[in-house]
């Protein structure tokens, strides 16, 4: 079996693109043509489930280097930049020609680039987001954000020689879904060169991720019901809308987001098979640690608190609290939700949050008892 080590390098402002890059790599590895012939190892400091520890006595780049392969030791290096270049490295790290690295991302890019010049390996792919940076005049981070933007501009200015000729190549993208398409097109020929043409394998017409149990002989359409997270690997065509929802949630100012559309237009599928799986993969930094809950207001009759409490049942089972007791407590005092939120997030990192997906919300106006509507809105 061939093995491909892929290093992901970027600051934290492109976490959605990082999640999409992992998605592309998972998809390529699981295609019928490469199954049992290819293993892709993603090298990234925030890889879900195996995040790199950051001991206080070590600098961040030092901790990363101690745990992970260097870019120069990998087969492919993917560099993604938009509005941030990252935090400067200390004087302990200096460029081959002298001077400090402006960030860990620059260090990783140059480490891979210098190795590629010497040996032709790794292949270094660079992508630059072109979406406009919005900075408010009263933003306390205004100067820092503009300074980072200038650093990215200076970084890419060095991709040209003084006479204007191209020194290094990179590709631009507007929205995250455009980045995904670019990356897949760039990686596919690389994978084909590494693996070759395994005998007896034909390319799959519908590539699916390993966690998708949908039979490849069957069309991947669930009929009139929505797509679920299990079918996220075959949910296609809503990357732009998924990205818009992630932007809203990522702004953190939006604590309530409504998805509105005609009946049958795919609202539930967009959230259930588009947004929630992206959050679970860390599309926004840290969201892989969030607790995601789905319920419908009239799922258990005309009391929405009963439906909400039922979503908590796996958590309540270990605490000895019944869903009915929780529903009654929430109906009497919406602030009681704080106690149950604490239970749901127990043992998770401080940045973990609780996200409710209230599906079929129109039921709230048509099937919920009028006496329960105001208390639920208060909650």
List the helices and strands and how they pair.
Layout: E1 2-9, H1 15-30, E2 38-43, H2 60-67, E3 76-81, H3 104-119, E4 123-129, H4 142-157, E5 171-173, H5 176-195, H6 239-250, H7 267-280, E6 291-295, H8 304-311, H9 313-316, H10 323-332, H11 337-344, E7 354-358, H12 363-366, H13 370-378
Parallel strand pairs: 1-2, 1-3, 3-4, 4-5, 6-7
Helix pairs in contact: 1-5, 6-7, 8-10
The fraction of residues assigned to DSSP E strands is 5-15%
Q: Give the low-confidence spans.
A: 201-212
The class by helix and strand makeup works out as alpha/beta
Helix content: 25-40%
Strand order of the largest sheet: 2-1-3-4-5
Count of alpha and pi helical runs: 13
For the record, give the distance between the C-alpha atoms at the N and C termini, rounded to a whole number. Answer: 54 Å
Average pLDDT score: 86
Q: What is the radius of gyration?
A: 24 Å
- Give the overall shape: globular
SSE sequence, one letter per element: EHEHEHEHEHHHEHHHHEHH
Report the strand count: 7
How many strands, what sense, and barrel or not for the largest sheet?
5 strands, parallel
């Amino acid at each position: 079996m061939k093995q491909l080590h892929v290093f992901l390098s970027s600051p934290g402002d492109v976490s959605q693109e990082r999640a999409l890059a992992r998605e592309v790599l998972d998809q390529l590895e699981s295609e019928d043509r490469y199954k049992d012939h290819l293993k892709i190892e993603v090298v990234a400091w925030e890889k879900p489930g195996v995040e790199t520890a950051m001991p206080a006595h070590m600098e961040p780049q030092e901790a990363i280097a101690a745990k992970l392969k260097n870019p120069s030791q990998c087969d492919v290096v993917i560099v993604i930049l938009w509005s941030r270049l990252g935090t400067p490295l200390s004087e302990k790290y200096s460029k081959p020609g002298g001077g400090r690295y402006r960030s860990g991302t620059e260090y990783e890019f140059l480490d891979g680039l210098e190795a590629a010049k010497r040996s032709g390996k790794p292949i270094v792919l660079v992508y630059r987001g072109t979406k406009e940076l919005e900075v408010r005049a009263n933003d306390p981070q205004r100067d820092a954000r503009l300074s980072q933007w200038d650093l990215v501009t200076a970084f890419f200015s060095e991709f040209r020689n003084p006479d204007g000729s191209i020194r290094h190549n990179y590709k631009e993208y507007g929205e995250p879904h455009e980045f995904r398409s670019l990356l897949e097109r760039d990686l596919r020929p690389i994978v084909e060169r590494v693996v070759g043409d395994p005998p007896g394998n034909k390319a799959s017409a519908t590539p699916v991720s390993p966690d998708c149990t949908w039979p490849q002989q069957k069309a991947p359409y669930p009929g009139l019901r929505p797509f679920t997270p299990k079918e996220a690997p075959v949910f296609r065509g809503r990357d732009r809308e998924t990205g818009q929802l992630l932007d809203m949630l990522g702004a953190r100012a939006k604590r309530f987001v409504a998805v509105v559309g005609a009946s049958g237009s795919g609202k539930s599928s967009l959230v259930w098979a588009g947004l929630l799986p992206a959050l679970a993969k860390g599309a926004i930094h840290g969201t892989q640690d969030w607790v995601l809950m789905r319920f419908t207001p009239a799922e258990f009759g005309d009391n929405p608190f009963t439906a909400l409490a039922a979503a908590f049942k796996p958590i309540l089972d270990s605490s000895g609290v019944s869903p009915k007791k929780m529903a009654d407590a929430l109906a009497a005092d919406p602030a009681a939700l704080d106690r149950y939120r604490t239970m749901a997030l127990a043992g998770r990192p401080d940045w973990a949050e609780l996200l409710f997906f209230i599906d079929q919300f129109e039921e709230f106006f048509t099937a919920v008892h009028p006496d329960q509507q105001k208390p639920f809105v208060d909650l």
